[in-house]
Amino acid sequence: MKREELLNYLDGLLMPGKFRDYCPNGLQVEGSSEIGRIVAGVTASQALLDAAVERDANAILVHHGYFWKGEDGRVTGIRRKRLATLLENDINLLAYHLPLDAHPELGNNAQLAKLLGWSPDGRFGEQDIAWLGALAEPCSLAATASKVGDVLGRAPMVIGNGEKLVRRIAWCSGGAQGYFEQAIALGVDAFMSGEISEQTVHLARESGVAYLAAGHHATERYGVRALADHLAAQFGIACEFVDVDNPV
Q1: What digits encode the pLDDT tens for the residues 93-108?
Q2: d(Cα 15, Cα 166) in Å, to the nearest integer?
Q3: In order of start, what are the domains of the chain with their CATH numbers?
Q4: Global model pTM greater than 0.90
Q5: Helical residues (DSSP H) of the chain, grouped into ranges
């Protein structure tokens, strides 16, 4: 398919123009005008770029791309090598950050709810990125954490009493520990994100609201994978999700 056809479709699907983001969404590095094979992944690391080259991909689709606000913009070292790989192999880099967190069906938070069996009934936080809802059945914090670990393939760090009953939970993938106070105010029993900060531990202990830190990468695999599957079904194009291991 034509690159512009794919970009126009993704613009309509993810609506990146609605978001105030920390990076440009959409086409970040221009490559071939014809796209026959897409490699998808969480982050546009050199390992993912090399995997795309090995698979003769024309495009890479990621959640974490390049050109973040506040970064040193000089093209040297690691940045030069990454860009050289893309340009020398005529590979497009497409990145969708907050739009892929927020999408109601394909987004990271929607996919987490689907995988974990949670029933969303509200959203909160900046640009309604974070979600909240109910567990399919109330269960202990320990059982909740065990299921998260089984589904995500990574045992979460848990702050709270394992015997605590969890009925309602809020969640937001990635580095969303900044939404914890809002989650507490909403009256949930627990909050899950990818990361945790030092002060977050004290908030959990003093509020009685449990905190699960399930991994930035582990919580953000599923949006871009769902998007790749969607594109394959919609256009019959080859889309392969490549999971570059990351313990964080």
Answers
A1: 999 999 999 999 999 9
A2: 34
A3: 3-101 (3.40.1390.30), 118-216 (3.40.1390.30)
A4: yes
A5: 3-14, 46-54, 77-88, 98-102, 108-116, 141-152, 180-185, 198-207, 216-219, 222-235
